[in-house]
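Troubleshooting entry. The earlier prediction with fe (ii) ion gave an output that would not parse, so I re-checked the input for stray whitespace and re-submitted. Clean input:
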Amino acid sequence: MVAVGDMGYQALLWLSFGGPEGPDDVLPFLENVTRGRGVPPERLAEVAEHYHHFGGVSPINRLNRDAIGAVEKELAAQGLDLPVYFGNRNWHPMVEDTLARMTADGVRSALVFPTSAYGGYSACRQYDEDIARARAAVGADAPRLTKLRQFFDHPLFLGSFADAVRAAHTELGRPGGARTVFVAHSVPESADRAAGPPEEGGRRYSRQVAEAARLVAAEVGLERHDVVWQSRSGPPRVPWLEPDIVDHIDALHAEGVGSVVVCPVGFVSDHLEVIWDLDNEAAERAAELGMGFARAATPNSDRRFADLVVELVREHLTDAPVRKLSGFPAAGCTTNGAPCAPRCCEPAQRPG
Ligand SMILES: CC1=C(CCC(=O)O)c2cc3nc(cc4[nH]c(cc5[nH]c(cc1n2)c(C)c5CCC(=O)O)c(CCC(=O)O)c4C)C(CCC(=O)O)=C3C
Ligand SMILES: [Fe+2]
């Protein structure tokens, strides 16, 4: 075993979104997610119903625990002695509590794996805010926390989506006959414009999503593909990234497209927004229109996901080459919650 502590890090903190684990958790969880964000009460009630449809349990915590188990095995297999801790932004185990435990266990410096591959406020900068908030809650003894970089263009991340898209086409059984549609979480137009350092011209989130989709499409050898969005929230008068996946299925039907493969390239696991908005709503619309529908799996279920995390860790421990397939700048790796660059992905001014 290599004592990674000798290299300056004593732990890996797995930092995720969090989700309810029973009916009584749903409302307090949603209040944590939306505090101060101007999400209308009608939208909250609607989303609460999605959770109650599954008994008030989001799969996200279980998926994270499964993935952590796989990463622990892979770290051990590669001879790296690095304990993994789990903390969330919005639900238990809360990152503040996890960081307090890490501090009590004597951790002085840790790496952080955020369960989002992309830049932008919700996908990157808000995890920096979580890190800063947890350190402030712990106080002067808080460990130094170094977040791993954005991995939307990593060959292991894109490779598992490429295999999943191929498998979904096989499942549909219409080789070359189905349109492939990549989908990511919508964000407000204003948030996307503010994504990235201002001198890069904004839109880091939507440009990275489009680039990830392009790279997967190229690896699969797709003739054409589309990039669309899901799960918009916020007041209707505020513009968000469009088109929405369900509207897009209507548009494809009108164009004469007979079947679709939907690939949730914006996410790492089959959490509630994937199983509700895609497997439920989008699949239902396709069925109503008589269209074929298959949804590509997310990387969490692929054993390469653990390899990806360990490879990102290794970038910090050795001079291992940084593997990335896009020409976009590597970003997101910062310490103690600092932004990637001045004014990078600044949070929008929110009502209230
Ligand atoms: C870019 C992005 C990602 C991908 C990056 C990443 O993975 O981090 C993501 C992931 C997720 N979003 C999730 C759940 C929710 N997101 C909400 C609300 C919002 N998401 C936004 C953006 C994103 N969200 C935004 C701009 C809002 C509006 C409010 C605000 O400005 O913050 C709401 C409130 C209700 C609603 O308005 O829909 C819920 C319940 C879950 C957990 C699902 C589960 O429980 O399994 C996950 C992984
Ligand atoms: Fe979200």
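This one parsed fine. The radius of gyration is 20 Å.
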